């Protein structure tokens, strides 16, 4: 037995390839990135040692608070939407449609597998104003409203971004939370019903508390993904107008490749890493405290 | 499960029947309005999910003239398939699809092989420090892609790998490993240890126990993780865009983005056709595998 499970050569055979790739692609570059952050320039233009200049620039750059605020606002609004609408859909699947929910579930999940660029280009056209008013503006006009030029102001573009990313991702959360609801034992719901709980009180006193762990996990998962938004916004409107809807990730990409400043780009990447670490820890702690309180 | 839910439904319906007897009028209105509400909600869901795709399809068949002269929501009076022909050639769709498939399939296969092997070593085999190594590997989940992109760019350039698809594949493998090792380790943990011990007692070596006992036992898990990695690699833009050096190496995502940048504001028809080719090709794939996706999501990973 020990020969089989403690075989050193086999352990190396199974473990070494994964470890080597992981160290080469993740661990070494993370350290390398830290080194970049005290330099300015790029491999093409040459590096110059800069000390803490990039970090000072980070605090002085007016675009940083703006993109940081946009990132946080986007992640908060989208996460709340994903969880609330996702949970509502999950309740609909489980308690209203029951066994006939398969078709709707399959349909709502479909956008999750689609390439983000295709969805973004489709939404850019749905909200278009040229060459003619797009379908969304046509609906607004139908109800007597004024058509909106969606991409000329940051607050209007924000609405389109949230609508697009909700459409793209809500199916994933609906299914994850639906699985959580399936895990609640039928006996618990049954006995609560016999005790007279129904509708809203059943939801509030039995179902919500019992699905709290999965909701917590889904929230952390959603926040982490949403804080790293990049592709959908890049393809929709490239963070415009100006930098009004630019998230940190896109700003980092633009600084590094459009302005050839890898040192500053790496410093922004460090800020992104710190932000997601802090948010994860805070959310994890507050949700865990909630769970132990019950 | 089925029996108990049947019991619940019968219990509920007897209760409902009792209520209906007592107050027939009110109960029927409540029942009726609930049904209408459900129908309305389902109607909204159907419109929100299907209309954009329907509109995409009809728009892709419009002539350039129809785009400029008629409201965008209208259905074309004459179907024009020319958009598909021009999208197919000017958007490099065939080569983009081939690149995407090469990159995605090879990344998924390598990630699964390396990840399952490492998870087997860390969860089933016995040696000092395996907990620490598992923690070290899974810690990679906290590293955002942005932090490693620039150094990798320089490394690949120095190794002379730019102008190939390898930088993308290597990067996806490195980024996919932490999640794969984490999930595969959970699957191996849920297998009763006696099965591995039986294999060892029957004289199977370590490799034999891995390939003929461990892997078949977690094949559902492998399928679920494989699908998860497949779609996240297939739909990635950040890595693909960073390491894209020339149009002939574009993936579908990068190709669509560049096509929109070059022609999107003038050639509406071909743009719609290009998006529509990508979306409806994936719809066909999805119709084939959605049952497995749902099964994978509703069992295993979450329950561990």
What does it look like?
- The complex is a heterodimer of chains A (294) and B (304).
- Chain A has 294 residues and is mainly α.
- Chain A has helices at residues 2-5, 8-36, 53-60, 63-97, 102-109, 116-126, 135-142, 154-182, 186-194, 199-210, 212-227, 231-236, 248-258, 262-293; strands at residues 39-42, 46-49.
- Chain A has a single domain, classed as MetI-like (MetI-like fold), CATH 1.10.3720.10.
- Helices cover 74% and strands 3% of the residues of chain A.
- Chain A has a two-stranded antiparallel ribbon with strand order 1-2.
- In chain A, helix 2 packs across helix 14 (262-293), helix 4 (63-97) packs parallel to helix 8 and helix 4 runs antiparallel to helix 11 (212-227).
- Chain A is globular.
- Chain A starts with a helix and ends with a helix.
- Chain B has 304 residues and is an all-alpha fold.
- Chain B folds into 2 domains: 1-48; 93-298, MetI-like (MetI-like fold), CATH 1.10.3720.10.
- Helices cover 78% and strands 0% of the residues of chain B.
- The longest helix of chain B has 36 residues, at 24-59.
- Chain B is flat.
- Residues 1-22 and 300-304 of chain B have low confidence and may be disordered.
- Classes of the chains: A mainly alpha (294), B mainly alpha (304).
What does the average pLDDT of chain B come to?
84
- Going across the major beta sheet of chain A, what is the strand order? 1-2
Find the count of extended strands of chain B (DSSP E, 2+ residues). Answer: 0
Q: Write down the Rg of chain A.
A: 24 Å
**Would you identify the CATH H-level superfamily of chain A?**
MetI-like
C-alpha end-to-end distance of chain B: 20 Å
What is the tally of beta strands of chain A? Answer: 2
What is the chain-wise order of helices and strands of chain A?
Answer: HHEEHHHHHHHHHHHH
Gross morphology of chain B is flat
Instruction: Report low-confidence residues of chain A grouped into runs of 5 or more.
Output: none
Which architecture of the largest domain in chain B would the CATH scheme give at its second level? Orthogonal Bundle
Mean pLDDT of chain A: 89
């Amino acid at each position: 037995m020990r020969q089989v499970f403690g075989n050193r050569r086999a352990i190396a055979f199974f473990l070494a390839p994964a470890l080597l790739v992981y160290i080469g692609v993740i661990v070494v570059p993370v350290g390398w990135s830290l080194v970049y952050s005290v330099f300015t320039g790029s491999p093409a233009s040459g590096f110059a040692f800069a000390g803490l200049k990039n970090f000072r620039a980070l605090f002085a750059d007016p675009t940083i608070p703006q993109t940081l605020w946009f990132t946080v606002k986007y992640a908060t609004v989208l996460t709340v939407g994903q969880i609330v609408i996702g949970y509502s859909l999950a309740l609909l699947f489980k308690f209203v449609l029951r066994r006939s929910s398969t078709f709707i579930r399959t349909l709502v999940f479909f956008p999750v597998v689609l390439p983000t660029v295709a969805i973004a280009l489709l939404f850019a056209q749905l909200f278009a104003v040229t060459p003619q008013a797009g379908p969304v503006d046509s609906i607004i006009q139908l109800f007597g409203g004024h058509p909106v030029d969606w991409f000329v102001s940051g607050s209007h573009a924000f609405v389109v971004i949230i609508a697009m990313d909700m459409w793209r991702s809500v199916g994933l959360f609906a299914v994850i939370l639906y699985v959580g609801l399936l895990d609640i034992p039928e006996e618990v719901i049954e006995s609560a019903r016999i005790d007279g709980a129904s509708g809203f009180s059943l939801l509030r006193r039995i179902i919500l508390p019992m699905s709290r762990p999965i909701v917590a996990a889904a929230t952390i998962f959603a926040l982490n993904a949403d804080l790293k938004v990049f592709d959908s916004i890049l393809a929709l409107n490239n963070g415009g107008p100006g930098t009004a809807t630019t998230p940190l990730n896109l700003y980092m990409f633009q600084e590094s490749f459009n302005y050839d400043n890898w040192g500053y780009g790496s410093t922004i990447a460090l800020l992104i890493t710190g932000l997601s670490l802090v948010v994860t820890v805070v959310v994890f702690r507050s949700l865990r405290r909630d769970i132990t309180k019950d | 499960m089925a029996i108990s839910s049947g019991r619940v439904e019968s219990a509920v319906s007897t209760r409902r029947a009792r209520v209906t007897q007592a107050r027939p009028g009110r109960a029927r209105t409540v029942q009726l309005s609930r049904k209408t509400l459900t129908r309305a909600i389902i109607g909204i869901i159907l419109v929100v999910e299907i209309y954009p795709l329907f509109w995409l399809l009809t728009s892709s068949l419009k002539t350039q003239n129809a785009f400029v002269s008629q409201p965008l929501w209208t259905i074309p009076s004459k179907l024009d398939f020319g958009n598909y022909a021009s999208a197919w050639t000017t958007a490099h769709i065939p080569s983009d699809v081939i690149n995407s498939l090469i990159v995605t399939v090879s990344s998924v296969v390598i990630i699964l092989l390396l990840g399952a092997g490492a998870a087997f070593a860390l969860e089933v085999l016995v040696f000092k420090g395996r907990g620490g190594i598992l923690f070290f590997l899974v810690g990679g989940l906290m590293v955002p892609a942005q932090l490693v992109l620039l150094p990798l760019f320089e490394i690949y350039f120095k190794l002379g790998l730019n102008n190939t698809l390898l930088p993308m594949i290597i990067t996806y493998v490195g980024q996919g490993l932490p999640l794969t090792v984490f999930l595969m380790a959970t699957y191996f943990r849920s297998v009763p240890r006696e099965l591995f011990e039986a294999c060892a007692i029957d004289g199977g070596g370590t490799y034999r126990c891995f390939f003929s006992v461990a892997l078949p036992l977690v094949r559902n898990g492998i399928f679920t993780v494989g699908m998860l990695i497949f779609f996240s690699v297939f739909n990635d833009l950040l890595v693909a865009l960073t390491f894209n050096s020339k149009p002939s190496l574009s993936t579908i995502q990068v190709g669509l983005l560049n096509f929109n940048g070059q022609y999107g504001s003038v050639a509406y028809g071909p743009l719609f056709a290009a998006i529509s080719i990508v979306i409806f090709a994936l719809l066909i794939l999805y119709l084939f595998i959605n049952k497995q996706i749902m099964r994978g999501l509703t069992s295993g990973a979450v329950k561990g």
